[in-house]
Amino acid sequence: MTATRIDGKAFAATIRDRVAQHVTRLKEDHGITPGLAVVLVGEDPASQVYVRNKGKQTHEAGMQSFEHRLPDDTPEADLLALVETLNGDPAVHGILVQLPLPGHIDAEKVINTIDPAKDVDGFHILNVGLLGTGQKSMVPCTPLGCLMMLREHHGTLSGLEAVVIGRSNIVGKPMAQLLLGESCTVTVAHSRTRDLAETVRRADIVIAAVGRPEMVPGDWIKPGATVIDVGINRVPAPEKGEGKTRLVGDCDFESCAEVAGAITPVPGGVGPMTIACLLANTVTACCRAQGIAEPEGLTV
Ligand code: GUN
Predict the structure, then answer these.
(1) Tally of helices (H runs) and strands (E runs) in the chain
(2) Is the peptide bond before 267 cis (omega within 30 degrees of 0)?
(3) What is the pLDDT of residues 214-257, one digit of tens each?
(4) Residue 267, number of CB atoms within 10 A of its CB
(5) Distance 43 CA to ligand 1 centre (A)
(6) CA 99 to ligand 1 centroid distance, Å
(7) With CB atoms counted within 10 Å of each terminal CB, which end of the chain scores lower, N or C?
(8) CATH number of 141-272
(9) Per-residue pLDDT reduced to its tens digit, 169-222
């Protein structure tokens, strides 16, 4: 391996420390405790793990955590009513409705019912539009974490060629907007891109966000490029024993690390940054709601 390993776990701990310091200041100077409400509908095991981690880290940062677990067959109207209640609750500064939602619920309708000022996911159509036009918005947590790592590693990103693989609303599209905001030349590649290997070979920065295990091999990577691997894929690991699994990214770590200048590992790269950025967004939302100066280093 020749690439520098970008340690998302350590960087996320730094962000969480910054968040905790700001929370202490908000309590001591303003008598306010930031609050995050997380809504989970159904029993999806991966979502349950994420929601538990979010609640735990919210508490550890000194904030209030409000968890709402609803059954899988919750009517859409009940979920919308809960979101409206949270919108009106002054103790709640951030609202996150865990996705995916059960098929009978219109996720877009739910997201667009969240008060944009409390939309710590940055998925509300108003925040999407603000980000797309370069205005102050709530920024989606995973792309925000990726950008923080890129800035930390590179300093300025101006003029660099960036290729984002994946065009999801959660990662690919907002990531592309953020990189444009940093004056990168941005290409968004996806499943229909004709020559993906050649496209990726142009990139000084590769963001892999497709959800396909180890899809990007080292020979797609330009020597010295920075690789940010957003994928978190669980695959069988028979070498660890029968029925065992391991986590891998969207990039083949071994071969990419031979060529790249820097790379994020999976696990321990983008993953820990996402929840740290959720906490950061909650503090940002709280400060904006109260008209208090926004803390440095928690958003872009
Ligand atoms: N499910 C997977 N990622 C996310 C995320 O960033 N936000 C929400 N609300 N749900 C998710």
Answers:
(1) 10, 11
(2) yes
(3) 999 999 999 999 999 999 999 999 999 999 999 999 999 999 99
(4) 15
(5) 15
(6) 5
(7) N
(8) 3.40.50.720
(9) 999 999 999 999 999 999 999 999 999 999 999 999 999 999 999 999 999 999
- Which residues sit with their C-beta closer than 6 Å to ligand 1? 96-99, 121, 141-142, 170
d(CA 285, CA 292): 10
> Which residue has the CA at smallest separation from atom 11 of ligand 1?
99
Residue in 168, 169, 44, 63 with CA at minimum distance from that of residue 112: 169
User: How is domain 31-116 classified at the architecture level of CATH?
Assistant: 3-Layer(aba) Sandwich (3.40)
- Contacting residues for 195 by C-beta, under 8 A, at least 6 apart: none
Is the whole-model pTM more than 0.85?
Answer: yes
Q: Give CATH 3.40.50.10860 domain extents, the chain.
A: 31-116
The C-alpha atoms of residue 8 and residue 274 are separated, in whole angstroms, by 10
Which residues are known catalytic residues?
Answer: 54, 98, 121
Q: Name which of 170, 206, 201 is nearest 188 in CA terms.
A: 206
Between the alpha carbon of residue 156 and those of residues 143, 148, 179, 183, 220, the distances in Å are: 17, 11, 11, 9, 24
* Cα first-last separation, the chain: 31
Integer Cα distance of 61 and 41 in angstroms: 25
